[in-house]
Description:
The protein is mainly alpha-helical. 50% of the residues lie in helices and 6% in strands. The protein has a single domain (2-123), classed as 5'-nuclease (Rossmann fold, 3-Layer(aba) Sandwich), CATH 3.40.50. It comes from Bordetella ansorpii.
Amino acid sequence: MMLVDSAIWIDHFDGRNTSLQPLLEQDGVLTHPLVITEIALGNLPQRDSTLQILQNLPHIEEASHAEALALLHSQRLDGSGIGCVDLHLLCAVKRRPGTRLWTRDRKLNKAATAMGLAGHPAAA
């Protein structure tokens, strides 16, 4: 399974990413409430239907704030340049064996790669 970051979704909606569609058709995509929130904060064409599609996807279990802070410390992510949402995505993926995080954010991808959590459909 692949947790897809908001930037990948935006590229998909704008037609700049064709790699996500096959993964969706294979039921290989998870989402996270914070990813949906990030997307909802943007300007979406067909807003209601787009958000409904995202809501209907399987959701990865959210990590608690305490779990996210523990991961920050154990992986020494302070000063890494990732944000709070990024940290929560990493934590959620780490808690679910076999799941990978697909992002094009360089700092988040670097952290995910270091933790063995980075993914891309070509590698799935």
